[in-house]
Design brief:
Length: 513
């Protein structure tokens, strides 16, 4: 078989000229639902317009997962098993199934070690609107976020614990593995200030490794980087930028074997992001590596960052807050939103789903914040991570998985519609965060989950339902408590964001509360 295809790929069905990510998405969701609700599984499999209607099927994953703990675990297990059985890996003209990749012969990756120059003690603060918030000022801001419904109480409490325990931030005893180390929303900048042992996995790319090397060099941490040849300790930075790196899509077994060489316990962080269908592929690559390393090294922990623009099971109090916000709208707000909804044939301002589902000892709701413009591949990539987190914790691993707020990263702001929507979202009490703020908050939450024995990341802490793992520590920016189905309000937020700079402020305020 002769082919130029290399690395991890979506499967190519017979008589197809190119893979269909929509077809694969349908099949994975259908497989996940097959045993818990065959009817919903069949609906997903038969969906004609996956790109437009995928939210209803992802909502079914949560709805049926809430029926019982066993259902949630069955969905996660079936979905992952199916995905690992259908994704393909190409090497030297040969095709393999992803689940068999770890048995392939590998080329040895070498390790380059770089020590940061700084001798400063670890510190933590939160950059916010031009200030460096610490101590009482940070506590005050955390309280404001909680009172406004921007963050959940568990998120606020975790940040308060971080303030109370500055000793947690000396990470000289931890070895953190960053898949996608240079990610704009990742914790590299902070780990480099906290004496961490940073195992960085990212593409062989001069710009990427320039950022990583500069960041670590300026800090007090130690960098461990993969390379295909032995490099002298005094190798110039300009040479290192050209030599370091490993490709998650093409070097899956090599990266896995390289990580197993480390004697220390590893904290694996899945933070790599790629656009479009590549995001699914890189999520599957990280999943394969994390699963393999976890099986070989029992004390491995996992870390993920969820997006707020997804569909989640949420506590009853969140649904009650959304219901109350809908009822408390001003008369002007109600009239205008109703008129716009009518004119748009309900495209705008649909009421949120406030139905409660009893599961075990608690009642939960479903918060659907999926944004269709982000696409089904993005939703699938993040669902894969949630599934692995759920199963890993059930199997006794420490798992940190927290919802990060909507953040004005380059991947967001390069889309004019999303940029405008986040700008205008404050109309609905939704706050988006600058990357430096998100980085500081989410890095601290990870450390909280590693250090605090009472964190839900600890598998010994009892949960009423496995999906509670994603409820705790959530910073959704207020999206969970919006009065409307988020994707039917955000388009108007985008219009508001576009118009805000052009129209008189007094006119724009008339739609306010």
């Amino acid at each position: 078989m002769s082919t130029s295809i290399d690395g991890l790929q979506f499967p190519l069905a017979p008589n197809q000229q190119k893979p269909s990510s929509s077809q694969v998405g349908r099949s994975i969701v259908a497989a996940a639902l097959a045993h818990v609700d065959p009817n919903s599984s069949a609906q997903a499999s038969a969906e004609k317009n996956w790109r437009k209607h995928y939210p209803r099927h992802f909502k079914n994953l949560v709805k049926h997962g809430l029926q019982s703990s066993e259902s949630a675990l069955e969905i996660a297990k079936a979905g992952l098993q199916h995905a690992h059985a259908i994704f393909e890996f190409y090497r030297d003209g040969q095709k393999y199934i992803l689940k068999d990749v770890m048995s392939l012969p590998t080329q040895t990756l070498e390790t380059y070690v770089l020590q940061g120059r700084s001798t400063q003690a670890p510190e933590w603060y939160v950059p916010y609107h031009g200030q460096k918030l610490q101590g009482d000022a940070l506590l005050k801001q955390i309280q404001q976020w909680q009172e406004r419904g921007i963050v959940e109480a568990s998120h606020a409490d975790a940040l308060r614990q971080c303030i109370a325990h500055p000793e947690w931030f000396d990470l000289s005893d931890r070895t953190t593995v960053l898949f996608g180390a240079a990610s704009e929303a990742g914790p590299l900048t902070w780990l480099a200030k906290w004496k961490a042992n940073i195992v960085a996995v990212d593409l062989p790319n001069t710009r990427v490794w320039g950022k990583i090397l500069d960041t670590v060099s300026a800090g007090n941490a130690t960098l461990y980087a993969p390379c295909t040849e032995k490099l002298d300790a005094d190798t110039a930075i300009d040479v290192l930028k050209e030599k370091l790196g490993a490709n998650l899509l093409t070097q899956i077994p090599e990266i896995a074997q390289w990580l197993l060489q480390f004697e220390q316990d590893l904290d694996l962080a899945a933070i790599a992001y790629l656009d479009g269908e590549k995001h699914v592929r890189v999520s599957m690559a990280m999943d394969a590596i994390m699963q393999h390393v976890s099986a070989e090294k029992a004390n491995t922990s996992l870390m993920y960052m969820c997006t707020p623009t997804d569909v989640y099971a949420v506590p009853q109090e969140v649904i009650e807050a959304s219901t109350q916000k809908y009822k408390a709208r001003s008369k002007a707000h109600s009239l205008i939103s109703k008129g716009i909804a009518t004119l748009s044939r309900e495209s705008f301002f649909q009421k949120n789903d406030h139905q409660l589902i009893q599961s075990g000892e608690a009642s939960y709701g479903i918060c659907d914040c999926l944004v269709v413009e982000q696409g089904p591949n993005y939703a699938l990539a993040k669902r894969i991570q949630q599934w692995r987190a759920t199963l890993a914790r059930e199997n006794g691993q420490r798992v940190s998985i927290n919802i990060a707020p909507s953040t004005t990263t380059h991947s967001v702001t390069k889309n004019p519609l999303l940029k405008a929507a986040f700008s205008g979202a404050r109309l609905f009490d939704v706050e988006s965060f600058a990357p430096e703020t998100t980085n500081a908050i989410m890095a601290a939450l990870w450390i909280h989950d590693l250090r605090n024995a009472e964190s839900v990341a600890n598998p010994e802490v009892k949960l009423n339902h496995p999906l509670e793992l994603m409820m705790h520590g959530a910073n959704h920016g207020g999206l969970w408590r919006v009065a409307y189905l988020a994707r039917t309000a955000l388009p108007f937020a985008a219009l508001y964001g576009f118009a805000e700079e052009k129209l008189p402020k007094g006119l724009m305020k008339k739609f306010g509360k």
